[in-house]
Amino acid sequence: MSKLPNISTSIFTVMSKMAAEHNAINLSQGFPNFAVDEKLTAIVSKLAQEDIHQYTPMAGYPPLLSKIALLVKDSYQRNILPETEILVTTGATQGIFTAIQALVENNDEVLILDPSYDCYEAPVLLCNAKPVRVPLNNDYTPNWETIEATCSEKTKMIIINNPHNPTGKILTETDFEALEKLLEKYPKIILLSDEVYEYITFEQKHISVHTRELLRNRAIVVSSFGKTFHITGWKIGYLVAPEHLMMEIKKVHQFLVFSVNSVAQAAISAYLEETSVDKISDFYQQKRDYFRQLLSKSRFKLLPCEGTYFQVVCYEAISNENDVDFCKRLITEHGVAAIPISNFYENGKDLHLIRFCFAKDNTTLEEAARRLCKI
Which UniProt keywords apply (predicted)? Predict the structure, then answer.
């Protein structure tokens, strides 16, 4: 008997496999295809010759923990303690899984805003808890009245994703004020804030839970070096949480992975001394603007993209097919892979929307757009 009877192979795996089989341009899975910074690869090459190949301490490589604390302070003016409030994880997904497993109990309820990234629900179900999906508005803004009406004494956790995958939406100051009022009313609710695209925002800058004094002492903030430094295959992320929550999370982490890849941790620690996160948004805004310009003469309708490296488009002027079938035909007939947005909804809601990843070199974006504009 399956513990997760309604969960099947991830749509990202399905579409990437189809893309490879049909030699299509893969704009589905969210990984960059351009070169990693040569400074980072040089650091890795040097470290490979050094004595850095054994277990690090469970919470993380101590110099990296100190660098993360400095990064959070520089980015958000928040002081955190490296020894007790940071955990390096095997990617953000493992961090999310670990936090939920540590803090959510049998029969608890966890609020997930719908549509959502697909890694939130499974760990809730594995806790014998109940994921409660709360629909976003049609423009993908949160409906705080609906969210509050869904809260109860059973609600243990609320998960937010900001910037939001798949829609690229960013929470506003008004959203955070509403969230703060809600959590004041329900003082036992824990906030899990997935902020892996925190450094990829455009006209409207990202507001982090790190900056919210009323929230951060009851919140876990999730970050990703994979997204920030274009090294998704390294699977390196980190959590920041107050000590009373982090103590519980570490209890699970130590029996799940114990410690994260030592060379990767040491490399990122050294790299943080040689790089800056300040220009990442500018880099991706150029990608976003260029991709949108390339698609401007297509039959796709482009939705706003405030953050992340994903562009959502509507194809209703092209086809009445459901979005999964349309994405499959996009691969087989036109040689471009995308992700259907219905897979992010609990009930498979189909609005004829699909998602492209524009974290690609310009040659790839140009050829993909050429094919898409012919449809």
Answer: Aminotransferase, Pyridoxal phosphate, Transferase
Q: Which two tokens stand for residue 356?
A: 């492209």
For residue 355, the Cα-to-chain-centroid distance in whole angstroms is: 14
When the pLDDT of each residue in the chain is averaged and rounded to a whole number, the result is: 96
Instruction: State the pairing for strand pair 219-224/190-194.
Output: parallel
C-beta atoms surrounding 198 within 10 Å: 27
Compute the average pLDDT of residues 92-114. 98
Q: Do 337 and 25 touch, CB atoms closer than 8 A?
A: yes
Average pLDDT for 22-26: 95
* Contact call for residues 100 and 157 (beta carbons, < 8 A): yes
pLDDT band for position 13 (cuts 50, 70, 90): confident
Task: Compute the CA torsion angle 240, 244, 249, 255 (nearest 10 deg).
Answer: 130
Cα maximum dimension of the chain: 59
Nearest alpha-carbon partner for 158 in 171, 173, 139? 171
User: 38-271 adopts what CATH topology?
Assistant: Aspartate Aminotransferase; domain 2 (3.40.640)
Using one digit for the tens of pLDDT, what is the confidence trace for 160-207?
A: 999 999 999 999 999 999 999 999 999 999 999 999 999 999 999 999
Structure tokens at 80: 């955190």
Q: Residues near 14 by Cβ (< 8 Å), separated by ≥ 6?
A: none
Q: Which of these CATH numbers, 3.90.1150.10, 3.40.50.11210, 3.65.10.10, 3.10.560.10, describes 11-36+278-373?
A: 3.90.1150.10
List the Cα angle 74/76/77 in 5-degree steps.
Answer: 70
Kindly provide the b/e burial profile for residues 221-250, where b requires at least 16 CB atoms within 10 angstroms of the residue's own CB. Answer: bbbbbbbbbbbbebbbbbbbbbeebbeebb
- For residue 66, what is the enclosing H or E element? helix 62-76
